[in-house]
Amino acid sequence: MAKTTKLELTHRPRRLRRQPSRRALVEETVLRADDLIAPLFVVDGKGRPEPITSMPGVSRFNITDLVRECRELSKLGIPAVALFPKLDAKLKDADGTEALNPKTLVLRAVRAVKAAVPELTVITDVALDPYTSHGHDGVLTPAGDDVDNDRTVAILCEMAVLQAEAGVDFVAPSDMMDGRVGAIRKALDAAGHTDTGILAYSAKYNSAYYGPFREAVGSAKAAGTRLLSKATYQMNPANRREAVREVQLDVAEGADIVMVKPAGLYLDIIREVRNSTRTPVAAYQISGEYAQIHAAAKLGWLDLARCRDESLLAIKRAGADMILTYFAKDVARALKG
Question: pTM of the prediction?
């Protein structure tokens, strides 16, 4: 047997890992329930929660059940929810006109949640994809081959004002149209909603991982495919510098919070954005990321809880101040013990 030689080392980083109490003392990143935003899907009617096949553990709620879920999330310490409607196909058309109905589903949901759980921060999506028959985030050009930027922005401004009137805390433009943050800020202020914030999807990529979400809100069915290309307005996954430019534009136009989406596949972008601005940074762990972890865990290839927590810790470590994640409730429960 070879003789063991004691190394003469000044620095032994393992000293700080010897026991749980030491590791706790030097832990650099901590995930809290306060860091989480729970995305929730709402449907009309009085039916039971509708499980979303591609997103285990996630359901669409009617408004009564949505309120019940929001109460539970708030008690678990989750400070915010983001609401997404799934509409009856009969309400959809090429221009997404149902988005401007003062009694549309998401506005009724906002009013109900704010009345029942006023301490909960409520965020609403500002984009037309749940409302259009073609599944795009805006209205199309006359040729039908692209989204009309400026016409879409005008509609988004009206949507944002209606959402603010319903009592939402943050409107969240997710459409990636040019100039929409500034236009929405002006529209909100002109309507007297100076306290309504803007959480901008500033660096939203044209990802292949959105499929389960599109199923959840029904935009995939409207488009006839989960593979609908949004490459003319969502960002090219190959680009990093462009994300900083988009963030800087949104901050200059009045965004209160900027967002990177997806999150886990774009940790470098989160760090790049964090280093470029003092504005709070959100990141969205999207449906495909969530579904992947669940699928691998179901096959016994990964430990669900450990991979869930590690994935969120990585997003926080990269620089996100807050994370939209479908794991929010489970993580908050685990943290509460």
Answer: 0.94
